[in-house]
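Quick one: structure for this chain?
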Amino acid sequence: MLHNIVMLIVMILTAWVSRYLIPILKSKIGETNYSMIYSLVEDAVLMAQQVMEQEPGEDRKKFVMRYALDRLEEYGLKVDEELISVMVEAAVKRMKLAGGE
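Got it. Here's what it folds into:
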């Protein structure tokens, strides 16, 4: 029963992020940049999941944040850490819903 409640909450949060937060992010940074940044974040989340499997989630998130911000800086893109954090959370939620964890 608790598992069902948690899954319902995750689904609601994912729907909210998809419906409201992602369009706001896209308008702030542009569609092309958003797609490139999200793809980078998503790849970093998958990489952290694979190579840091035994590490706590908070350590994996710190790794993903640092990795993404460093790569974006290499591309000359300055992106607010809060935006990256939201993208990380969205990527993790999507991965979990897809059965990746």
